[in-house]
Amino acid sequence: MILPRMIRRLKDRRDHKDSEYAHLFEPYKGDEIVSLDCETTSLDVKKAEILSIGAVKIKGRKVITSDRLDIKLKPPASLSKDSILIHKIRASDLVDGIEIDEALEQVLQFVGNRPILGYYVNYDIRVLDKFIRPQYGFGLPNKAIELSHVYHDIIKWKSVGGEIDLRFDTISKKLDIPILQRHTALGDAITVALMYVRLKHGSPPSVA
Q: Where does the record place the Exonuclease domain (predicted)?
């Protein structure tokens, strides 16, 4: 799975080396990370339509909530009662939503070539790529940082021979980070950002 994505990324970089998006393929040399989350109609990438996108930037120990992305999209036809049970977002909540093309442009401008952090971040990237590639001819080339992997790698030495619970709510509780506006894209993005800062710059969490 990794090799084809690497090959495709190299091809995208070559094909767009002279385009206005060439900078997205350059190695990132700054010190910021973007925590990103998407709320969708389905957990199946092939069926998923994007309802909202939230993102905030992290710089060192700071989560810069003043510099954020909080996008609502127009409600898709696939928004059903069953999907509402997953994300708690109704069509009436998206009455002021924007078109997907405008949303994607805002995401590319906000994220740039910074690393993307998330909880099950590969899902969010794959869903975005499903819409970005047909529109722009490339997928997101950004480095991905999976929060649950960061958490696992930091506490695994405390759980020799034991299972590590990587559920979102469990990680939040272990890190003593409140869950902000659960099942909203911006709320989850901020919560993930706070958990990441706690993991990287705070004391290792207990596993009791």
A: 32-205
| 173 in Cβ contact with 124 (< 8 Å) | no
Identity at 28, one-letter amino acid code = Y
Q: Which two tokens stand for residue 160?
A: 């020799």
CATH code of the domain in which 122 resides: 3.30.420.10
SS3 176: coil
Give Cα separations from 191 to 18, 122, 167, 183, 196 (angstroms). 37, 18, 14, 11, 9
First to last CA, the chain: 35
SS3 53: strand
Nearest alpha-carbon partner for 106 in 54, 39, 170, 184? 54
Question: How would residue 1 be classed by pLDDT, with cut points 50, 70 and 90?
Answer: very low
149-180 residue pLDDT tens: 999 988 876 655 567 889 999 999 999 999 98
Number of domains composing the chain: 1
Residues 180-189 pLDDT 10s: 877 789 999 9
Q: Is the model's pTM score more than 0.70?
A: yes
The amino acid sitting at 37 is: D
